[in-house]
Automatic annotation (TrEMBL):
It comes from marine sediment metagenome. PANTHER family: GAMMA-GLUTAMYLTRANSPEPTIDASE (AFU_ORTHOLOGUE AFUA_4G13580) (PTHR43881:SF1). This is Gamma-glutamyltransferase. Pfam families: G_glu_transpept. Coiled coil: none annotated.
Length: 335
């Protein structure tokens, strides 16, 4: 902002820096989702990538998978964040993308002290990966993120010249190198060498998508989220369930109980229903309808609803928000 940029530039710069200073929660290979209020208009960007073309349920079953594993090539999708940065910059940014990404390049190149939260997560993940990640393909993670044979300790300086070079290439080419250039070639070669499904043509076909935000009105306020495949709709579903309840006091059991139950119902339904919108069997309109809310509201009694989720998802997300003097605002998730 001090350099003359706007809220969009600030969001991109922060998101890129977070891939460096909080690698335990996100990375260059992340997906990205943004709600923007620019010049009085609301916009949505979905920069999440699909699964590679060469992977299928049949392929996974043939190789003995009943679920998507936490590690390896199977859960890898097309990374969307670099393309999202470029799309945001092109449409709404004021500064060149190379200038906006320069702080992230410098943090990677010169290093930064590891924060208490990142340090504790880093050590936990290192201990997990040391037990579970075997094989040459995983050795590069340890070379990058465990340079002394261990996780960096809280307060120690961590840096990566390779990460700096990757970010610089993305910055100088407005992410083209990542999807169609030398970085795409490197990703393709690495995937082929170690049995991955991702190929350069998957990267080439990816384009961030500008989408229409969705909303519900909760007690006089319009609450906006991005549509599926983003998970923000579960918040709207829960608010729709709750809107007919009267919450006269905050610090009482019934208030907490109803809010918790509504979120459990919405999260459970979200896990079953929300996917790529091209394949959803239930529409957004149906999930946000008064009939849906009324049906689910009846399930909230004095007793607790048993959650339908059978597996707690692992974390791995950062959130940021920015605003500028012109009233532009960005709400941004990188995961």
């Amino acid at each position: 902002l001090k350099a003359g940029g706007n809220a969009v530039d600030a969001a991109i710069a922060t998101a890129a820096c977070l891939t460096v200073v909080e690698p335990t929660s996100n990375g260059i290979g992340s997906d990205a989702f943004a709600l923007l209020f620019v010049d009085g208009q609301l916009h949505g960007l979905n920069a999440s990538g699909p699964a590679p073309q060469r992977i299928s349920i049949q392929e996974l079953e043939k190789n003995g998978y009943n679920d998507i594993p936490d590690y390896g090539w199977v859960p890898v999708t097309v990374p969307g964040a670099p393309g999202g940065w470029a799309a945001l910059s092109s449409r709404f940014g004021k500064l060149p993308l190379a200038k906006v990404l320069q702080p992230a390049v410098e943090y990677a190149e010169q290093g930064y002290p590891v924060s208490p939260i990142a340090g504790s997560y880093w050590e936990r993940e290192f201990n997990t990966f040391q037990k579970k990640l075997k094989g040459e393909e995983f050795s590069y993670w340890f070379q990058t993120f465990a340079q002394q044979g261990r996780a960096p300790r809280i307060g120690e300086t961590w840096r990566s010249q390779d990460m700096a070079a990757t970010l610089r290439s993305i910055a100088e080419t407005r992410s083209e190198s990542f999807y169609r250039g030398d970085l795409a070639d490197k990703i393709d070669r690495f995937s082929r060498k170690y049995g991955g499904y991702l190929r350069k043509d998957d990267l080439e076909k990816f384009k961030p998508e500008w989408v229409e935000p969705i909303k519900v009105n909760y007690k006089g306020y319009d609450i906006w989220e991005l549509p599926p495949n983003g998970q923000g709709i579960v918040v709207l579903m829960a608010l729709n369930i709750l809107k007919e309840f009267e919450f006269k006091e905050k610090e009482v059991v019934d208030t907490y109980h109803r809010q918790i139950e509504a979120m459990k119902i919405a999260l459970g339904d979200g896990q079953v229903q929300i996917t790529d919108p091209k394949f959803m069997k239930t529409s957004v309109e149906e999930l946000l309808s008064d009939n849906y809310a009324e049906e689910k509201r009846k399930k909230i009694t004095k007793e607790a609803v048993l959650p339908t989720m059978n597996k707690i998802d692992r974390g791995g997300t950062v959130y940021l928000s920015t605003a500028d003097e012109d009233g532009n605002m960005v709400s941004y998730v990188q995961s």
